[in-house]
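Because showing beats explaining, we let one protein speak, sequence and backbone structure tokens together, and leave readers to judge.
___
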Amino acid sequence: MTPARATRPLRAPRPPQPEAHRPPEPGRAPVPPAAPRDPAPAPGILVRALLPLVRAEAAAEAPAAGVEAGDLEQGAWVRLLERPARAGAPGDPARWVRDVVRAEARRARRTAARERTYRHEPPADLESDPERIVLRTDRNRAVRAAVGRTPGRCPSVLTAMLSAKDLTYREMAGELGMSQGSLGPLRSRCLGCLRRMLAAEVAAPERGGKER
């Protein structure tokens, strides 16, 4: 019998070396590691650095564009904020500011050339005015609240007068169960009572729009 051969222990595989530590291939020059990029400046620092250039270019382009210089400045700052963060500061700040402000001026001129004014502007619809709607709603609420506090048969009479059906005297008297002759004096007394209540609750305005 032949003696058993001694087995050699297996070596663990070597971990891959990073690119910077690998030996260069034959006939190929080693590639130097990339230099770290400078961090992008903070937005506040960049704005302060470009502010004089932006203002000067905006003031120079605004008269020909027919817009305010502040509008061109705002457009330039918007363009700056839209730049990707990895782009960092413009390589040539003066040229970048000049190109951006002039582009905003061209856009403003195109917009002004396409705008058309109304020759005959339609009158405003007073019924759909939000302020009038709010005031009318508040006034109606106050009147109906006061109607409920009037004495005797006045709440029924005044509610019939405020009905959306726009009742005639005959129809109103029929709903209230009284004659037309007695409805007139009762209506006048109820309206006078309601007027005094509203005058006491709502202050009358003085001259100049002030309230007493």
In short: Helices lie at 43-65, 69-82, 93-114, 130-147, 154-161, 169-176, 180-201. The CA atoms of residues 120 and 131 lie 24 Å apart. The first helix runs from residue 43 to 65. The chain is about 55% helix and 0% strand.
